[in-house]
């Protein structure tokens, strides 16, 4: 039996003491207040190369352990996250901006332990594919080696765990490059996990695009797990080509929600709202355009406005808030530009659309826009913020055509009182996941991935474990 050291509960001050040195590295500021949260080590390509060498030498020993032993470590890692959950949530809230409450910082930290435990629990047996008396063929999943993980700034801890947990479970070691906007959250998470993990299994190297490029092209890295924009995904395909790396690419989306004409608008309004505004809209698989039939268009708009008006937005550490700022100036500018374009086109602002000037923080008010054309940039581009366009349709054919009209396809949803009818519409939508009467409800047991330019490869569940192994067939 393996014995893992017991995790120590860390306070916020303990955690920051481990990851941030005063006066050194890069200043990271709170997007709600502009105040410094801490300082991140700069992280260079030389640091990355050293980390890959450590990961390479630690891998054979880790890969030789049994699934049971590795799962034991993942469960200990989940215990460690739970022991320091409040410190992690506070750091996430300060650095990313998301409130402690609502489907935000505490929720994200909870998801970290849930995904670690789920990755520990799955069974992945060798698959006997032929056994007919003459031929016996079995597919085994061996460790890949070193996995390079590259992550975004919107769910920095949870997405890191999505990359780390199946990698470690399958016997790989991990070198992770977090987003330059949220390095402290990922360094904090790793400090907590590394209380219980053997040395060299998980290393975090902060840094910018140069470090990400070096990781993607590194000859001693066997696979890249990437979550981020489609543009960066394409760059990673190019920089990984010479080493023929395996890739899992979770890229941008622009998810459609289609409401059918048999719903009760009041009954679905709150779930519709959170389907779009989770993490203040900064979520890959959030609803980013909503299609509503003529017959109930005004009722759905009114019900959404009623919900939106009562959701408090503000500084994340204030326990009352459930919506926060945009994480950075560039993202704020994208949302402001797209809403301005919608307003200039004559679309109707139901709520929001007028940011307050002179306030600290990248706050953009919760915005609902009606009577908007499907070709408007607020519909056609991924806004990744708290602004939802609501588009009218008259026939299901028209709604499905508009939903499928873009070159991305991560998630989608269909809303109906009749699940069979909803499933029939769902089957016609070009997206990796279509949810019924909910949106973005990722689940560690259910495979998740995009189609079209939203990427390829599956995460979660047994399918997700297989993606972190190299299949080897033994046939005789
Ligand atoms: P981004 O692509 O700008 O950055 C992601 C990461 O890639 C960062 O760590 C960045 O430093 C790194 N990077 C940048 N250029 C690189 C290069 N040339 N080579 C290697 N790495 C490089 O994405 P973002 O703005 O941080 O995240 C928002 C985007 O991520 C949105 O499009 C969103 O839809 C998408 N996203 C997708 C999922 C999913 O599961 N499909 C989940 C979350 C976010």
Automatic annotation (TrEMBL):
It holds the Pfam family Aldedh. The keyword Plastid does not apply. Residues 27-467 form the Aldehyde dehydrogenase domain. Keywords: Oxidoreductase. GO terms for molecular function: aldehyde dehydrogenase (NAD+) activity. Its EC number is 1.2.1.3. The keyword Chloroplast does not apply. It comes from the Bacteria. It is an enzyme of class 1 (oxidoreductase). Residues 20-41 are annotated as: Disordered. The active site is at residue 250. Belongs to the aldehyde dehydrogenase family. This is Aldehyde dehydrogenase. It comes from Arthrobacter rhombi. The lineage of its organism: Bacteria, Bacillati, Actinomycetota, Actinomycetes, Micrococcales.
